[in-house]
Every structure is written in C-alpha cells, then in structure tokens.
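sanity check this record:

:::
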Amino acid sequence: MGVTPASTATVNGGNGGIGKISNITGSDIYYAGGGGGGSHRSGGTCGTNGTGGLGGGGNAASCITATSGDVGAPGFAGTNGLGGGGGGAAVNQGRPDNADGGAGGSGVVIVRFVADLAPVITGPGSSTGATSSISITENSTSVFTFSANEAVTWTLSGSDSATFSISASGVLTTTSKDFEAPTDTGGDNVYQVVINARDSGALTTSQTLSVTVTNLNESPVIQSLTLATTPYKGISVTITINVNTPGKVRFFANDKRIPNCLLRNTSGGYGAATATCTWKPTSRGNVTLTATVTPADATFSNRTSSGLQTYVLNKSTRR
C-alpha cells in the first residue's frame, strides 16, 4: 500500500550508477547501469529527478507540480539487453499509491572462450609467415634456432631435409655442405627444408626454409703424393698427385724444380683431379718430393703438399 511521506522537505532523486564497460562485442558497451532515483514534491516545490546510469539504467519520472490529482509519475524502464535498473517514480506529498518505479531492463548472457589456435613459428629475420630464408657458408653445420609461441614438437620434411636435423628446442643443423659439389635437389646450392611445429592439440604449422650455401675461399685438399716404384739414379719414375680440385701442379725434389714438371695440368674433375710427373733422379741418396697446386678456381688458394721421403738407389743395385 502507498506511503505518506513523513518529511515535508523537497527530495531530489540521485543519478544511477555507471555500470560496467565491456568490449567483448568488438566495441565498448556499458552494461547494468543503475536507474535514476525519483524525486519528492513537497509544499509546491519539485525535486530534481535522477538520470539513469550508462548501461541501460532508466530515468526517473518528472516531478508533478499540480496541487490536485492523486497519481504520481512512474519511473522509466531500463533498456532491454543491457541489464539496467528501472528509474524511480515521482512522489507527491500526502498522496497514497502515487506511482511505481520503472522495470529493470532484461539482461544479456556473455560467454567467453579461448580458441585453440595453431602455433606461430618464428624463423630467420623474425619471419612468422609460410616461408623464410638464410645463407650459410660451405662447410658450416649450424643453421638457425627456430621458436614458437607455445610448446611444440619439431619435425622436418621437404625435398632436401635428409641432410638436416632439428632438436627438441628448435636448433636446426646440417651436415657439412661443399659449394663446389652441391647435393640439393636443384643442384644450385639452395636447399629446401620444411620446418613443422605441432602443439599439444595436434595443430601443426609449417614454414618452408630456403638455405643458400655460399662459397668460401679455401685451400685444396691434397689427397696423396705417391711414387710408382722405388727410384733409381738415372731411371725415370712416375710421381702422382691426387687433389680435390682441378688446376696446375709444380713438382719439386729437395725444393728444386723437376724439369718438364713445372706446370702439369690435372685431369679429372672436382673431387678427383690427378697430375703426374716423370722424374729421372740424377744422384743417389735421400730425397724429399713435394708438389704445389694452383687451382683453376680462384676461390681456392695455392697449396703445397707434405713432403714424400724417398731414397734413390744406384741403378747398379737394381735387380
């Protein structure tokens, strides 16, 4: 039942609370604002009615100034879908059953969940896309350390992956690569390796890595310096050198140039080049044979072999 206010003072309605802001829908929206408070008329003076808060709060009713009439002004309802409170009613002094406050607005259920997304791989140059690239010098074995935004299991695939390996922590390594003898599928010193990262939810992300092997200025590899047979004074014998790169060879006996063996061209290709020298010893005794290789490829430097120790016999001792 209605209530006759005991106070004869003017009462102002308070403003509703601001509510709570959320951007779950993609933009900022206020929810659950409070309703504005109603005013109380007393002695012919209107109080100030309250304003609903942000988030759907209803405004209070306007104050009634007439001295006659039994009905007060009802409050405004809160906005549906935002959960705001209803506004308060305006009350006239001494009038029972003046009016009701506004109804609260209906609420909204907000459900938030976390989607399971595939891992993000970070490769060379901070690349996080489908491809990345890196260059290493020949004979190197270290390539790159990959990372992901979550715990993953690393695996490799791709046309050139057989000579690469990746650790549990994403460290990618390779077997030593020879620029002069590429083994990649295209034969152009660009190796294609697919890096795969799989998370605990079985979601996988892949990044194709292009590893370019660059040339390195290096010395040739002299594989052997040999004599065909025991040397005898005055009898020709063949000296042979095996080297891994084509070029020209100079032969020496006790650091003296051997005639007709100053610029001997190698035969064969990279990895298996050979040169020979026909040597006719002129004296008996200990001799150290050496050979200096000048590669045809300018990225290789000259190199002299280790000494081959031999002993020249008199030909009269030959059986």
Observations:
- The CA atoms of residues 233 and 281 lie 5 Å apart.
- The chain has three domains: 1-113, 121-214, 222-317.
- The chain has a mean pLDDT of 82.
